Every structure is written in C-alpha cells, then in structure tokens.
Amino acid sequence: MPGPQSTAFFVLLMVIFAALVCWLVLAKHIVFRVLAACLAFIPAVVFGIAAVNKYYDYYQNWNSAIADFSSQPGPVAGIPGVRLTSVRGITRLIDGNYAYTRLAAQDGFTLRVVVHGRLSHLTRNVYVYLPPQYFQAAYRHYRFPVIELIHGFPGEPQDWITVLDITSTLRGLIAGGLAKPAVLVMPDANGARGVSLQCLNQVHGPQDATFLAQDVPNFIARSLRVWPPGRAWGIAGYSEGGFCAANLGIQYGSRFGFAGVLSGYFTPMRNQLGHPARLVDPFGHDNRLRARNTPTTELLRLPPGALVPQFWIGAGAKDPGDVRAAEIFRQIVQLRQPAVVLKLVPSGGHTMLTWRLLVPPMLEWMTPRLATNVHLAQERARRLARATATPRPRQRAVHRRRRHARRPSPSPAPRRTAG
C-alpha cells in the first residue's frame, strides 16, 4: 500500500474522486447521485489532510499514524511497548525470558509507565527507551545518563518514536561509535491533545514544570539504573518543547547538565486549555513570574557562577523567525558559554523533517558529554568511598602504633635545687 506521503497515494485519491464525480454526472436516479456526492467528499477531505501531512512532513508511514491516533507506542525494533505502573516491573518481565533478553540486548526496550507526581499531583504517561547496553553484561554495574525529551504542540510523547524515530537513530549512532548509550525519557508534557501548558507552573492550574523537572526525574532515578538528576541528565525538545528545554534547563540548572533546543522560542505565550480551546495567562498577569520564565531575560539576570546547562541549538534555515530567535538566544548564552553550537538545516522549516535531521547531531553532541560526566561522577564516588572507608582491625592497630610513635615523649619535670 502506498505511504501517506507518496505520489501514488495522491494519484489514487484523485482517481477515486474523479470516478465518483463521473458516477455523479452519469447517474440517472437521485439516490445514486446523492450517494456519489457523499462518497466523493471522503477522498477530497483525505486529500486535504494528506497535503497538510506532506507539507509538515509529519507521518511518513501508516504505522506512525495509527500508533499516534490510537495513543499506543509504535513497534520499536521488534520490542513491544509495555504499560506499567512501576518501572521496577521490567526486571520481572524480562528476567528469565531468553527471547526478550536477547532482543533487548540487541535492540533495546521501550515501555510506557504511569507516573503519579508526588509534588505536582499530576498523573501522566511517560515513555522510556532503555538502550541495548542496559541489558548487556558489560554494563551490568553501569548507571546510565538520561535525556528527557519534550514534544511540541500539538503532539504527544510517542511522536519522538513514531515520527522522529529517535530510538533507532540513537541505536544506529551508538553502533557507529558516534554516540554513547543513554536512557531516553519521553513524558506527556500537556496531558491531552489540544492542550498547551508550555511546561509551566500555571497560577491556580497544572504544575507542569514541577512534574517534568522534579517528579519525572525523581521517579526514573529511583526506579532505574541511572544517575540522579544533575550533570548526567540532559533535556531536549522541539518547537514548544524547545521552549520547555530552555526554560526548565535554566530554572532547574542543578538538575540538567545539557539542553538541546530544536526550533524553540524563548518568550512564553498564553496557555491553551479545554474544549473548545480557550487561552489563559499562565502567570496570572504577574510580570515578575513572566520574566523568570523568559529564558532570554532570566539568563541575563542570573548571577555569575549560577548553574546553567550547556546548550545546543538547532533550527530550519527556511524559517526566519526560528533562525532569528536561535541566533539571539545563542548570543545571550555565549556570555556564559563561549562555544555554543547552532546547527541550521539548509532546506528545513518548522517541520518534523527539520527535527528528524537535527536529532542525530544533537545526540552526537550530547551523549558523549553525558558519558564523560558519568565517568567523572564515578571517579568522585570511588574517591569518596576510599576516603570514608572504615579501616580493618589490623589496619586500625597499625594506625594506633603509628600515632603512638609520632606522639612526642613527655618532657622530664624540672629538678628543684636548694635556694
């Protein structure tokens, strides 16, 4: 069957439409004319939807579209998506099953978990991709770095898998020696289609920033073999998710070491809520809150030495607004970080095609740096363990003898003489 973006699919729709129009003209009975007119409406609408899909380069195959509209994770390298309320369940799911273990060690494992935010009181789905190395013996004692990926609006977290193909991209880059293993965490940033929260703590509304920057990382850190939030964590996003990556990275600088911004913007807009949609000021008309959540403003206000993630910025060269926003943000970031990467896709606009092309260089830049920070953290942990290790009984005795030998002898009391 031709794909949703193929020329053959568009030709097929036009042929069906033309045949139904001919039937409408040639039919003698009014019933058949009405039926033909109604049926002709279907390929016309589908043609319009397909044209929009092709323009934005969203769905490249039918599996992606079906997985997205059914809210189910698409197939990833033969490993089925699994819905769990706790990530700990993956150990029981895979251990003892040779087929799953062998496939996971080759292709990785994708699962869907339900996270109940202890601080935000939000409950959302979170998709997690564990790379093949997570299941390999050589990495049995390795704690992995993490990249939290924020989707755009409108969109869903599984778009990273079904549309941007990030899991197989990471797997291929690791195999080619261009990237390092990392756990990918893809949370639901908005809670529903047609809702835009911009990863903000809305006044008298959803505490989205708290959920994404605290609840989700805390849940993943206590459930999987990964490092806790900090220098071994990255955050990245496209479009609205790009704003989220920049803003959360700055707001929670101690929890993210790196940030990737793909076609992001840097000034918050109004949130979109409900059906029918209504626009809401997330800050309750508080200009101080707005300024603290404007990355270009907040970066300039932070004191010297404040923790800020290292930034990687990308955009499509055919979208002047995205390019200008990226260049301004890069110039501000360079006041703190002299070498800031700005990657432009020559033929790209504000589309999924652009973000698919930006994902590989972003992973090539971020994952080796995350791995370096993991190595540094491991070395610090080893030094701390050696420094705080309790000496053995024999060692304690030796230490006591050495201390006694170094202790100066008491001076003799002065001799009294007769006056």
Commentary on this structure:
The protein is globular, with a radius of gyration of 28 Å. Helix 1 runs antiparallel to helix 2 and helix 11 runs parallel beside helix 12 (320-333). 37% of the residues are buried. It folds into two domains: 7-56; 77-378, Alpha/Beta hydrolase fold, catalytic domain (Rossmann fold, 3-Layer(aba) Sandwich), CATH 3.40.50. 46% of the residues lie in helices and 15% in strands. The strands form two sheets. The protein has a nine-stranded mixed beta sheet with strand order 1-2-3-5-4-6-7-10-11, with helices on both faces. The termini are far apart. It is α/β, with parallel strands linked by helices and 419 residues long. It has helices at 7-26, 30-56, 62-69, 89-94, 98-107, 159-162, 166-175, 208-223, 240-251, 287-292, 295-301, 320-333, 352-388, 393-406, and strands at 83-84, 109-116, 123-130, 146-150, 183-187, 230-238, 256-262, 271-273, 278-280, 310-316, 341-345.
